[in-house]
From TrEMBL:
Residues 14-122 form the FAS1-like dehydratase domain. This is FAS1-like dehydratase domain-containing protein. SUPFAM superfamilies: Thioesterase/thiol ester dehydrase-isomerase (SSF54637). Residues 44-67 are annotated as: Disordered. It holds the Pfam family FAS1_DH_region. Gene3D superfamilies: Hotdog Thioesterase. InterPro entries: FAS1-like_DH_region, HotDog_dom_sf.
Amino acid sequence: MTPFPIERGHVLAFARALGEDTDAVPPTFPIAFAQFDPDWPLRMEPGRPWHGSGAEPGAAGQGSGGLHAEQEFEYFRPIRVGETLSARRSDGRTWEKAGSRGVLHFAERHIEFYDEDGKLVARSTTVSVRVEAAS
């Protein structure tokens, strides 16, 4: 499991980026876990090509597994500033759908956040989509 510290400064910066002036944890804050996930595909690393900017044609999605299609958060209790959660990642469903430009491949990814007592605090589900161009 990967530790996810809920730090006041990080929460405040996240809230301000949303246009909020609060130090309460915003409902979408668990997405910030990506900054602590060493396996997050869009995280920059020295000496490794980075495909997260989309600066080059076709670069967006390389290394990220496709486009971000959907995000859902489920809470079992509020997240509190000052605690450190432990995150556990797992793959979910996969499915395909025919599209006008080819086959769309969908994949779910779940992240569950646990408190220091091992109790489930929140769950995040992300759906990504990758297009396989028609030949």
